[in-house]
Design goal:
mainly alpha; globular; 207 residues
Amino acid sequence: MTSAPLRGRQAEALENDRAVLDAARRVFAVHGPDAPVAAVAAEAGVGIGSLYRRYPSKEALLEYVCLESMRQQEAAAQRGLDVEDPWEGLASFVRDCVSFRAGVFGATVAGALETTDELRATAKRANDRVTRLVSRARDAGALRPGVTAVDLLLLIELFSRRRLDDGGAHQRLLAIALDGLSAHPTPTADLPVPPIPWKAYLSRWQR
C-alpha cells in the first residue's frame, strides 16, 4: 500500500526540508561548522524566520541535516547491496554518496554536535551495510586487498567537500579513485568527463 501524496503545507514543508538539507551541505562544505544559519537559509531560498520556526536553534538544524544525511547514506548502501554485481554495487554506492555530498557533515561537523540515540542507531545501520558492501566485493575478488569500509567513507568525505564550481572535475577524479580501489583496473579512456584545461584551472586565481 503506497502512501497518499502530500499536499498543501505538508508538501511545502517537505520541499523546504529537502532544500535546507542540500543547502546545508553546500554551505558547510565551503565554510565549515561555523557557517551561520542565515547562509543556509539564503542558499535554500527560504526566509530566516521560516527556518527558525522549523529549527529553533543552529544545533537543532544540524541535528536534522546530519540525521537525514545519514538516512540517505543508509539507503544508498542498501541500493548498492541490491545490485547483483559486488563491485558495481560498491562503486554505485560511492558515486551515489558523492553525488549528494553524504560526507560533508562527517568532515565538518563531527565533534561539534551532541549526537542523539537516533543518529547513532542510524549511523550503525548505515555502517553495517557499508561493511557488507566491502566484504562482498572483497570475497568476489573485485576489491583491492587491504581496502576497508572506513577508507570508502573517508573517500566520500573528501569528495563531498569539493568546490561548488569544479566543472564536473570530481566525476573524473572519482573514476580514477575507484579505478585505484578495484582489483581489476580499467583503462583511463573510460573516464566520464574530459580533462580540465589549464586555462580553466588557472582562471580560479583571477579576481
